[in-house]
Amino acid sequence: LVPLPYDFDQTGLVSAPYASPPPQLRVANVRSRLFRGFCSHNAQTRDAAAEFLAARPRIEAALASIPEMTERTRSRALSYLNGFFEDIETPEAVEENLVGECVSS
Q1: Do residues 49 and 59 make contact, with C-beta atoms less than 8 angstroms apart?
Q2: What is the pLDDT along the chain (105 residues), one digit of tens a residue?
Q3: How many CA atoms lie within 13 A of 30 on its CB side?
Q4: Are 28 and 20 in contact (CB under 8 A)?
Q5: Residue 40 burial by CB count (10 A; 0-12/13-18/19+): exposed, middle or buried?
Q6: HEC profile for the chain?
Q7: I need a surface site. Which of 20, 30, 56, 89 has the fewest CB within 10 A?
Q8: In whole angstroms, what is the distance from residue 54 CA to residue 25 CA?
């Protein structure tokens, strides 16, 4: 499995003023995280979390390299990403924030 975000204007990373989550998800806004992975993929979830942690410097560097991005926008995006990295920073955090929140398939 390869996690692939899409429709970036509807994500908390971009946080477009017109973005809103689907009502069935019952989250306050697009910056609220909700893990929706299937429990049957928990092993891959753990592996993907480790890959994201390893890629963190490259992800942050990519964000820093966008010349059109204002400093305020960059700061908000980095803050949002930091929340994600906190959610996966240790194996225990992955278990609590992802694996423990999985959806039965």
Answers
A1: no
A2: 666 666 788 888 888 899 999 999 889 999 999 998 999 999 999 999 999 999 999 999 999 999 999 999 999 999 999 999 999 999 999 999 999 998 986
A3: 17
A4: no
A5: exposed
A6: CCCCCCCHHHCCCCCCCCCCCCHHHCCCCCCCCCCCCEHHHHHHHHHHHHHHHHHHHHHHHHHHCCCCCCHHHHHHHHHHHHHHHHHCCCHHHHHHHCHHHCECC
A7: 20
A8: 30
**CA separation for the pair 32, 26 (Å, rounded):** 10
